[in-house]
């Protein structure tokens, strides 16, 4: 029986609209200039649209896919007015996102042989990793689930302290050791404690360093191996947290982390403070990894499950 029942489905659409307001305003400002004086979608409009999408951090490869889809529509329908461009963009981008995000809401399933459900969180320092963990813990606890946090980013005292602050705020137990301790040892202790407490969910924080990818890969591999001594086939999920406000840098981080570990889901944060919301479209398409959560505000409730239809609607809201 599932212990997760569309946890985030009640999130208000207004929060998403507000969180994507800067991206929306920036995009339509550029789009207005791209179609100025044009009534028909022609080669010039498509060239200008390509520039708009790239400059909106959708990414070159994904932009070319979108342009190709619209070109096919133009060839098929013969005449498409520029006033139809917004609705066509919505349809084609939603279709593109559907190839990776094939569900409106994610339902995390826990069976009797998958408890506790273990989420290992990865990402560089400063992307909102600890905040995302805290907000996830809050959401899960609201559903009556028992959550345990593991502070396996032992290379920074601040990382341990920040996670402790969230554990106190959400009122969930945390397992930690001294700064400089073996991260795998922390993960082992966390899972052992979670099993004894009959916990439903374990969220493990990990170090956010990319300057030495070999060491990072070895460390994450060791953490996984040690966790499997306590609970088979863990982690059940490897969640990569990316800062949406960094635009193309988020692409590079996704590229590096997907090389070093098997990422199964993405959380893209800080979308409310940037005009770079298009990065969600590009990263979802390029890496074929589901975008599971998006951060659209600073409040504890402002972490939403990614819904492709609602995202596209807010991004292209007139």
Automatic annotation (TrEMBL):
The EC number(s) this enzyme carries: 3.6.5.4
Keywords assigned: Cell membrane, Cytoplasm, GTP-binding, Hydrolase, Membrane, Nucleotide-binding, Receptor
Residue ranges annotated for the SRP54-type proteins GTP-binding domain, each copy included: 290-303
SMART domains: AAA (SM00382), SRP54 (SM00962), SRP54_N (SM00963)
PROSITE patterns on file: SRP54
SUPFAM superfamilies: Domain of the SRP/SRP receptor G-proteins, P-loop containing nucleoside triphosphate hydrolases
Positions bound to GTP: 123-130, 205-209, 269-272
Family: Belongs to the GTP-binding SRP family. FtsY subfamily.
Nucleotide-binding among keywords: yes
NCBIfam families: ftsY (TIGR00064)
Protein name, per record: Signal recognition particle receptor FtsY
Function: Involved in targeting and insertion of nascent membrane proteins into the cytoplasmic membrane. Acts as a receptor for the complex formed by the signal recognition particle (SRP) and the ribosome-nascent chain (RNC).
HAMAP family linked: FtsY
Reactions listed under catalytic activity: GTP + H2O = GDP + phosphate + H(+)
InterPro entries, alphabetized: AAA+_ATPase, P-loop_NTPase, Signal_recog_particl_SRP54_hlx, SR_rcpt_FtsY, SRP/SRP_N, SRP54_GTPase_dom, SRP54_N_sf
Molecular function, one GO term: signal recognition particle binding
